[in-house]
Amino acid sequence: MAESTEVRKLVYLVTGGCGFLGEHVVRMLLQREPRLSELRVFDLHLGPWLEELKTGPVQVTAIQGDVTEAHEVAAAVAGAHVVIHAAGLVDVFGRASPKTIHEVNVQGTKNVIEACVQTGTRFLVYTSSMEVVGPNIKGHPFYRGNEDTPYEAVHKHPYPCSKAQAERLVLEANGREVRGGLPLVTCALRPTGIYGEGHQIMRDFYHQGLRLGGRLFRAIPASVEHGRVYVGNVAWMHVLVARELERRAALVGGQVYFCYDESPYKSYEDFNMEFLGPCGLRLVETRLLAPYWLLMLLAFLNALLQWLLRPLLLYAPLLNPYTLAMANTTFTVSTDKAQRHFGYEPLFSWEDSRTRTIRWVRAMEGSAQ
Ligand SMILES: NC(=O)c1ccc[n+]([C@@H]2O[C@H](COP(=O)([O-])OP(=O)(O)OC[C@H]3O[C@@H](n4cnc5c(N)ncnc54)[C@H](O)[C@@H]3O)[C@@H](O)[C@H]2O)c1
Ligand SMILES: CC(C)[C@@H](O)CC[C@@H](C)[C@H]1CC[C@H]2[C@@H]3[C@H](O)C=C4C[C@@H](O)CC[C@]4(C)[C@H]3CC[C@]12C
């Protein structure tokens, strides 16, 4: 941890700083980056909780803005030493159009890169995703793979396509000359499925279970492993790599890093039950009730219903052909690249991550009663 006597001179910008991950990154920076003089939080939707952060030694500047608007991004980036670009449209449920997903995730990232080049900001950390790699459209498993594991990363869904395009733009921008003549240093972090306080999908599963009398019905075999990572450790990896980008530019610049921790390798549903079980929900085995062909039929019916109802209302259930295929394909990582390159070690143990997440779900339970 950097010395607390260090001079406060750095300006950081976090785009998407009011999102699930973004809020944890903002709070982690305020706790663990003593060189901060100003922290700019840029988001389409600012959270009221930002106000409570304005009483500390770091100037917290809330900026309501849209990453698809180049001038708004340039104004927010100007004068920043480091940009952590976490803003994005995370949609695999058909809520947003493919065009909008592309505009936010790809054009928005282009705007951030160009703003760094035009204003002279040299360090850019991009929040990419495991989905840049897979699971691919062929359902090929990726079992305990690393950044160099060969894998046919072919996608059709707008979200993984947009994340892959954006990541490529960020990595290709590494080394570009920025205003002032020095090179831009970029890297991309690929978290697996993030969980923890504020995870909307976990909230959706919890409320679905409450509606079904405390039961959730298994749709995925327990044997299918899905990588998960605690949000606090994802935030910590962002803070750490942002700190090391300058000192280790030659090694870290232009690199990608999977982001995971000691969270156990389990199926998506079994992993969720680590938190929902202690909060009173039960996972009902449905091997005989819901064969895979029936789940596929239900998923396609959901997609058809979504299309039919779209002129009237947004129908976006958890189960659709894409989410079923994703959940049904093993995708786990095992790598020490981030540890070797910039000393990443999870800040939160599995036990601590689990306890914190259960505490959060229980707090929801209190609000749901
Ligand atoms: N949640 C996960 O499991 C996961 C896993 C890997 C990577 N990621 C990536 O992490 C990042 C954050 O994801 P999250 O889960 O916190 O999602 P989130 O939706 O909670 O946060 C995204 C934030 O970006 C903001 N945003 C959206 N469009 C914007 C725009 N046009 N201009 C400015 N701000 C905009 C949203 O308001 C939100 O606050 C995303 O880039 C996502 O692809 C998420
Ligand atoms: C209804 C059942 C089939 C249920 O098991 C569906 C689960 C499904 C909603 C999730 C299964 C895998 C999740 C994705 C994965 O964790 C990685 C992701 C990448 C990240 O960048 C964004 C979130 C996500 C796409 C995540 C979304 C929910 C799942 C599809």
How would you portray this structure in words?
- One of its GO terms (cellular component) is endoplasmic reticulum membrane.
- The chain crosses the membrane at residues 292-309.
- Residues 13-285 form the 3-beta hydroxysteroid dehydrogenase/isomerase domain.
- Its EC number is 1.1.1.181.
- Pathway: Steroid biosynthesis; Lipid metabolism; steroid biosynthesis.
- This protein is α/β, with parallel strands linked by helices.
- The protein has a domain at 10-199 and 229-265 and 333-351: Rossmann fold (3-Layer(aba) Sandwich).
- The protein is 40% helix and 16% strand.
- The protein has 12 helices and 13 strands.
- The protein has helices spanning 20-32, 70-77, 98-119, 158-172, 200-211, 231-244, 249-252, 268-276, 292-309, 321-327, 337-342, 350-368; strands spanning 10-15, 36-43, 59-64, 82-85, 123-127, 142-145, 185-191, 193-195, 215-217, 228-230, 255-259, 282-284, 331-333.
- A 7-stranded parallel sheet has the order 3-2-1-4-5-7-11, with helices on both faces. A two-stranded parallel ribbon has the order 6-13.
- α1 (20-32) packs across α6, α2 (70-77) packs across α3 (98-119) and α3 runs parallel beside α4.
- The longest helix is centred in the first third of the chain and has 22 residues, at 98-119.
- The termini are far apart.
- The mean pLDDT is 95.
- The structure holds nicotinamide-adenine-dinucleotide and the ligand CC(C)[C@@H](O)CC[C@@H](C)[C@H]1CC[C@H]2[C@@H]3[C@H](O)C=C4C[C@@H](O)CC[C@]4(C)[C@H]3CC[C@]12C.
- Nicotinamide-adenine-dinucleotide is lined by residues 16, 18-22, 43-45, 66-68, 86-90, 104, 108, 127, 129, 163, 191, 193-194.
